[in-house]
Structure formats: structure tokens, C-alpha cells
Amino acid sequence: MTMTISTINDPTIPLASEDAIPSGNSENAHLASKEVCLFLADYASTLLGSGATCIRIEKNINRMAEVFGKRVELTIMPRHVHLTVWNPKSDDRYTSTASVAPAPISFSLNTRLSELSWTVADSHLSLDEARERFLRIATSDKENPWQTLLLASLANAAFCGIFGGDLSAIVIVFVATALGFNLKQVLLKRHFDSRFVFFICAFVSSVVGAADFLFPAGNTPAVAIGTSVLYLVPGIPFLNSFNDLLYRHYICSVCRFIDAIVLTGCLSLGLCLGMRLMNVDMF
Question: Which residues contact 8 (CB under 8 A, 6 or more apart)?
């Protein structure tokens, strides 16, 4: 969308209606659009990389831009964020494009960055304060990998019990998840392609999950192998795709949906190969 802002020297003719101009505050009145744009672009790309929906990014960006006395035109793409910031009372305008760095989905980072936008709006933080808090949040969001590993393993084992698995199956699923999830953490940290990671982790977990077939200590081996890979199901990309579809972010919606389908296919391929290797026939 192309917008033209004209500077009118006649004081009797208003530049725009009072309701249409963001109020901001006196401390932020002097801010250049470039400063605000660079901050908001970094914020938006980080939020998108943490797994936020497009509508959340839009609301957070506009909420902070209003405090800084600016207007924003935001375009969200699957790998980039294009942002134009301008002052409605002058011809000061700046455009920036920020790339989204590949990173695992982080609910903690997502929540804390959203809280920052509300803090900026409610407390009318200055740009320097907002930038300082943003950098602190972005660099301190480090989850304990061992705690995450334990909780993920317990959660997947609980799913096995919910689906009717006996004690033997629950224990096997816990071990299969722990091994597969730890491998996922290591490979992603070393920047392996996520599709390969999903394939190899599903393969490893399904091989371990098939132990209940080879050494039948319980009565639910099929439940064990079926739930051993549930931790890999890309539920968040599927949900975000549907959310973006509702709010007409069609490009991001389709791309997220395709990514989720591809990851599901890699998961399925790894599961089938593991079952084939262990000579498990479920069909």
C-alpha cells in the first residue's frame, strides 16, 4: 500500500483529525521514525520466530507505536517482517526489513515479549527503556534443557496412559521420548535441518517403542509404539496456521500449514522406517 503525506503550511487547515493522530507522550515526541522502526522490526521478527501468530504481532506493534506517537504499516511474511513507521504530523518516515532467525518455539519468550508491549503502553516507557528490556528478555530466555527433557518425557508417557497403555508401555514410552527428545535438542542446537531432525528422532523413538513387541512384558505394545512419537507432532504450526487464516494472513497461513504437513510427513516416514526395521506390522 502506498501512502502520501503532505506538509501543509496553512495553520488554519489541520493535517488530520485529532482522533486519527496517535497521541504518544511528551518524552517520545522527539523520536525519529528510524529509531522506532528499527526497534519494532527487531521486536516483530523475534516474536514471529518464537511462534507468535500474526494477529498478536500486529496488536503488539501497533500498541507500542501509538505510545511512541507513530503510525505503522506492517507486512508479515514467513521469513521476513517488512515495517514502515512514520510520524503523522510530519514527513518523517522510515522502512526496515528484518529476517526471522530460525529458532525453536518458545512460549516463555512469546509471553514475555507480549507483556513488554503492555508495559510500554501502560507505563509509557521511553524507547530506550523499551529497547533495554527487549534485549534483556531476548538474551535471557534460556530454558533448562534437562527440565524440558524430563517434562516432555513425563507428558508423553502420560499420553500413553491416557490412550490405554499399561505400566510397561508407559515406561517404554518415557524412555523412547527421553532419547528422541534429547537427540532433537542436540541436533537443533547444531543447526541441523528440522525436517531431518523430525525424521531421525521419530525413527529412534519408534525403534525404542517397539521393544514392547520384542519383549512382551505388557498387553499394549501397539499403544507404546503409537505414542512414542507424539512429542514430535507439530501442533503449534497447525494452530497458528488456522489462526492466521481467520485473520486473513493467507500467505503465512499457507506456509505454516505446508511446513506442518512436511514435518508430519517426516515424522511418519521415520516411524514407518523404525517399525519396518523392528519387523513390526500394525496394518
Answer: 15
pLDDT of residue 214: 76
CA-to-CA dists, residue 251 to 175, 241, 261, 263, angstroms? 39, 10, 15, 18
For residues 49 and 59, what is the distance between their CA atoms, to the nearest angstrom? 16
Whole-angstrom Cα Rg for the chain? 24
Closest CA to 175 of 135, 203, 208: 208
In the beta sheet, which residues pair with residue 81? 76, 98
Find, among 97, 76, 73, the residue nearest to 85 by Cα.
Answer: 73
Q: pTM for the complete prediction?
A: 0.81
- pLDDT digit string (tens) for 47-97? 999 999 999 999 999 999 999 999 999 999 999 999 999 988 888 899 999
Residue 127 is placed in which grid cell?
524507547
Distance CA 181, CA 206 (A): 12
